[in-house]
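Data deposition worksheet. Section B asks for the primary sequence of the deposited chain exactly as it was used as input, without tags or linkers unless they were present during the calculation. Section C holds the resulting structure in token form. Section D is free text for depositor observations; keep each observation to a single sentence. Incomplete worksheets are returned to the depositor.
Section A, Depositor: J.P.
Section B:
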Amino acid sequence: MKILIVDDERMICEWLQFCIGQNPECQLTGCAHNGEQALALFQENEPDVVFTDIKMPVMGGLELLKRIKEISPETVVVLLTAFAEFDLAREAIRQGGDDYLLKTEMNNQSFKEVLERLKKRVTKQEVSRGGAETESTGRQHSIIGDILREGRTLGEEDVKKLKACNIRWRDEGLFAVAVWKKEVLEEFILPENPEVHHVVGFEYDRLTYVIVGNLERDRTELQKIQLLHEYGTAIVQKNRCMAGISTVTGSLAHVADAIIEAACSLSRGYYMEKEKVWPAEMAGSEIRSLVKRWESGYRKTRRELYEVSGQEFYQTMEAVLDHAKQEGVFPVCMFAAFCCDAMEMAYMRFAGEDAKLMHHMLLEEKRAVSESVSYAESCKKVTEFIRNALAYQEMDERNLSKGVAAAVDYVRHHYSEPISLESVSREVHLNTEYLSRIFKEETGCTYSTFLSETRLQKAAYLLSHTPERVQKIAESVGYPNVSYFSTTFKKRYGVNPYEYRRGEEKDAGNHGNV
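Section C:
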């Protein structure tokens, strides 16, 4: 398997080269530090897999992804990203990216596992090339993916592109069936049915695989519905899986509606956890409208989680999980991404700087939730992780010793001043080393973490509720250097102060709630 690395951080490149070099079945074909260099190396060496950073000079990862998929749609592109760039990573997946890795989660063992999965995928692609009717070429994947991500009605040019790639869907009896992608990767059996034609399969998102085709001509609408249900049932029985099916449409222009209907129907199976055929209950246009509302609601809830106490954090997450279960149709990838964000927030806010065990748990649980196709499993992992994180941090001030309680109170009243642990120690009449130790033991976090959290929470409130300039706010919460304040704020909230304020203003009139 040939691999190309693209990242403007040389240490990341060197580390990836080291890991790849330990795997004899992998060949490093080149290492580039921006998208322009990478594109030249890609065209020269034709790698099977490209690991690329998102933010780079000259040409960024999103543009590089687009150019690579135009040249070779079957090439696997994995985005390397930081937690703060989750939105960009999700955008990359929508634009045809195959997967993403968090830089903070990468270690030798986990990266070795990633390489193993990619080798299986590349091998499967090589074996499957040949053009059978039930298989999509890489070009078909790319075109269909573009159609899905835009969620639009197809025009004449779209239809011409499809036909040029040997996709023969016609304006009659169009349907879509969605299954979990992991089922397809594990010897999936596509049933033969003489009344089902022009079948094409492709990866819809990180978890879902969609099959699209035509039903036999000259059938009544009721017969088409029955035929599609029988076809979906055959898929479920042969593969012991669940499947979501669309309504039947007579217009190729509306195939994107059928696809999103099937994916949404499969989501119901995720929440209900029954291996059966799940029929469509909503039209594609209605689903797209709901997705926009859900995305807005999740953004709002994310911001709320940055502000609330530990117990409120847990209660908010319980409400989100219960609501998702009741609705039963939230897109699974979006729901899983939100759960992973919440666990990351819980770790950063409540686990403490030195909670190595919690960090290890975070990596494992986020991967499990991202790959899970079971609501109950994901829900259990999320709630248990947050409970564990809160166990490190949950502060009952009634149980604090007199000295620590005095230190906490002093910080909350003087956070805008340049107070150090030494100065606080003098104020509460305790030895500095002793205060440092018992502060961590009793509050669950270090003094510096508590001070930083207090300042940043106040800054976030001022950004949301006052028109004060960012520099003025930074100074008022104890950061005379606005550049350092911006860096620290972004590390904590995922966006810089200016972006945070714009997001708050945008959501100010939004009534969509999760």
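Section D:
Residues 284-307 form the longest helix (24 residues).
The CA atoms of residues 82 and 104 lie 7 Å apart.
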